[in-house]
Design brief:
single chain; 86 residues; mainly beta; three-stranded antiparallel sheet; globular
């Protein structure tokens, strides 16, 4: 496969080229810090930042939050089908 963009520097505004399933967990940080989080089914989404501060977002179905969360908490999160984009 040819990747004509492999020599370009990747910035936060660049499209993601990897992804992983996010399973909310009150006790464990994400193994990778995503650039954005895709939400398949909307609801509440409780995320923690690198300073340890939690915040609740209310995304709709098939939306994204542009936030580099270190943890997605289970308690308070009703959104589902979460995918981290790198």
């Amino acid at each position: 496969m040819t990747d004509k963009f492999k020599s370009n520097a990747k910035g936060l505004e660049s499209p993601a080229d990897e992804h992983f399933i996010i399973v909310p967990d009150d006790d464990a940080d994400l193994t990778l810090v995503p650039r954005v989080i895709y939400i398949g089914s909307g609801g509440s989404l409780v995320v923690r930042d690198k300073s340890g501060v939690d915040a609740t977002y209310y995304p709709t179905d098939n939306s994204y939050i542009l936030f580099r969360a270190i943890r997605v908490l289970d308690t308070g999160t009703t959104a589902s089908n979460l995918i981290g984009n790198l």
